[in-house]
Known about the structure:
The structure is a single chain. The chain has 124 residues and is mainly alpha-helical. It folds into 2 domains: 7-70, Multidrug-efflux Transporter Regulator, Chain: A, Domain 2 (Orthogonal Bundle); 77-124. It has helices at 15-22, 26-35, 53-68, 73-122; strands spanning 13-14, 42-43, 49-51. Strand 2 and strand 3 form a beta hairpin. The longest helix has 50 residues, at 73-122.
Amino acid sequence: MPLKEKTIERIYWTIGEVAEQLGVNTSLLRYWEKEFGMLRPKRTGKGDRLYSKDDVAKIREIQVLLKQDGFTIEGAKAQLRGGRKQEDARDEAVRRLQRVRAELLSLQADLAEDAHDLAASFSR
């Protein structure tokens, strides 16, 4: 029986690898690290930055906000801080709308029943 190949998933990437992957300069990554406190890559004993999968995801989110969505640095910071709050607010709004929809469907069913009863009373 052949041995199964193990797939080894990388845990950390260097700043150069991340910069190349995202198409940006390493200096830009260092700048974003200063500006966005949420970005904290691990450091080796020599001080080299090592980025995890979560770090790379955060950098991509920052890149999208700044480059694609056109946010300023301050605007992106506010968006990142408020992002979770906005998602929670949206989820709560969806739950409220679902309750309103259920109530409206119940009212519709009651009205249909009343209309059926009324029609039946006239046909007698």
